[in-house]
Amino acid sequence: MLKTLEYRDGKLYIIDQTKLPTEKEIIAIETVEECFDAIKKLKVRGAPAIGIAAAYGVVLGIKDLEEDDFNSFYNELKKISKYLGSSRPTAVNLFWALDRMEKKALENKYKPVEEIKKILEEEAISIQREDEKICKKIGENGIEVLKDGYTILTHCNAGVLATSKYGTALAPIYLAKERGWNIKVFADETRPLLQGSRLTTFELMEAGIDVTLITDNMAAMVMSKGWIDVVIVGCDRVAANGDVANKIGTYGVALLAKAHNIPFYVAGPTTTIDLKTPTGKDIVIEERGREEIICGFGKQTAPSNVKVYNPAFDVTPNELIDGIITEKGIVRAPYDINLKTIFSGAGGE
Length: 349
Ligand code: MRU
Hints:
It is built from 11 helices and 14 strands.
C-alpha cells in the first residue's frame, strides 16, 4: 500500500499529490511554513491526512523555539497552531488535531519545555497510528453495506491518499478485495482538481481493484443503466444534524442516488463529526482560486476575465444520507440523536 505520510528523523515525508498520477514524488517537509504550503496547495489533502500533517506541522514549528518557560512556549505554540489552522477552513480534522496538540501541551505544563516537545512529537505519531486503526475499523463496519459482486460509485478521493492507511470510503472496498470478493468501482473524475481521476483511480489500480473513470456529468447515466449498487463518499465535516460537507459535487451525486433509488453512504472517522456545528449551513466552505477553473493543469479553457465561483466543498443534507460509516458503527437517522449517542459510547450498528 502507498505511504501517504511518514515521519522520520524529525521530518515529515509525503507523496506530493499534485504530481500524481504521472510522478510519484516524495517530498520532505522540514518547517511549519512548508507544512502550511503543502496543506494549502493540496500536496497533502483529505480530511484525516490534513489533520495528521498539521499535528506534525506543530512538531516542526516548536522544534527550534528557544522559550524555556511554559507560558511563553505555549503562546508561541498557539500562534503556530493558528497559522496552520488558517491553511484550509472546511475539514474539521485539521482543527481537531491542532486542538489535541494544544491540550496535550497544557496537560504537561509543569514539565520542562524540552520534555513537552518530545511529548508532542509522540502525540502526533499517536494521531497517525490511531487514524490507521480507525480507518481499518471503518472498513470492517462499512463492508456491511457491500455484497460480493457489487459496483460502488465514489466521488473525489477518500482512500489511502487521504488518510494514514486504508482510507475511509475506500476502506470497505480494500477489505472486500482482501476477502476475494468481485467488486467494481466507478470513480467520478471530480472537477476541478480531479482527485477522482488523478488519485482514486491511481490507488485502486495499484491495489488491483477494477475501476472505471467517468467524468462528473456521466454519473446520472451510469446510475440510470442500473450499474451502481451503492454510493460511498468521504466527508470533511459532519454537522450535529448529520448534514455533510464533502468535495464539491457530492450533493449532486446524493440527489442522483436518491432519484435512482441507490443507497448513499458517507464514511468518516468520528474526528470528522463536529457536534459544535449545528447544521450544514454553519460549515465554512473553502473557496479557491479562479485559475483552478479557467486554467486547470496549465491549459486555458475559459476567457481569462470570465467571472468564476469556485467552492471546494458542498453540503449534502442529512435526509439524502442512508448512513454514516464510522469506526464506531454505522450511524443512521435521526442523526441529531444518534451522532451524539456514538460519542457517549453507545449507538451505531
Ligand atoms: O480538497 P480535498 O482533496 O482535500 O477534498 C477531499 C475530500 O473532499 C474527501 O472526500 C474528504 O476529505 C474525506 S478524505 C477521507
